[in-house]
Amino acid sequence: MLDQFEPQQLQQEGTVELPAPSGASSIALESLTIAQCASVADQIRQNLTQGLPTLLDLSQCQEADSAGIQLLVALQSDPATSLSVHWTKPSVTLSMKADRLGVQSWVNAGVLEQ
Predict the structure, then answer these.
(1) Of 1, 32, 4, the residue nearest 16 (C-alpha)
(2) In-domain check, residue 111
């Protein structure tokens, strides 16, 4: 799934690298839009190549578009990534957008209970 994304040097605005609990790599996202999708997918691909699970921190995500929501659904629906990539409970903004797109259950399925 992630092989369809070409690694690119995109603007890193809205993406912050944080230390992760339990050996997972954590990526905090204030924004998950088309501008961030390729770089987030590249970070996830690098983690998976190194055998590291990934935790996306979506709790403070205040901007999301359909491309960002689609990335979450693709990660959750792909058996190659669904067991290794999870996220925190999404912000209200992200949850509302996922609900409007009819994919709230897919987004909820990727939430890692802490």
Answers:
(1) 32
(2) no
